[in-house]
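Here comes a specimen:
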Amino acid sequence: MIFSTSDDEAKAIELTLLGEYQQAVMTYAAIAEPCARVLNAYGCLLRERLGDLPSALECHKRALARAQDHERVETLTLLGAVHNGLKQHDEAHKYFSQAMKILENGKKKDPSILAKCLLGISNVHFARNELDDALSYVERSLAMREQEVKPRNDFDIAACLSNMGNILRHRGDFNRALECATRAAEMLRECTEDDPRLAAALNNLGALHQSNGDSVKARQCFEEALACLHDTTHPYRTSALNNIARLNLLEQ
């Protein structure tokens, strides 16, 4: 299926790629009668770049009302991701399960969307402290992203590795957790210098170094996370500042 792109949508995409996120938001907001694709892109911008989960949720809900065919699966998956971010894990599981059902009953499976569903369900299990199930789902998602999803997306692979690191840390397997978190941060460093996803990975890596008693490496990670974020209100920046403050208290 071929989609036409309006001038305003193209401008919003260009602004996003340039890192002009607030201008991109205003451009998306000005589009009259946006389709599901546009609303989902708008919602992803709000969630991934600006950390505005309530507004992202509203975008994806509007998209679901207009979604058709494959757009419906993608929208359900995005709704699950936002609900996970809002710590509304039962709602997240509902949307991921609906998407999985459609994918499993379809003749042609989209490995990219399926991998997102698997990761989302892993996050639900992790939030419920069901660590074995969480690890199983994230391993399946990682394998799919590394072997089946084309073209390869290192941002998505890094997300799986970061989540796996968190799960392994809670299982007490600090060595494997550190390997996953280190690989995620290194992969993202090669992709970008000022992306919130790199900041999140660095916060996770710093927390692992701190757990292992290496406050020097932990501080380096937290300070690098701060440097990634130009938006002073972003929640990942707050997390990094809180992590540094805790380190300062421990070292007094």
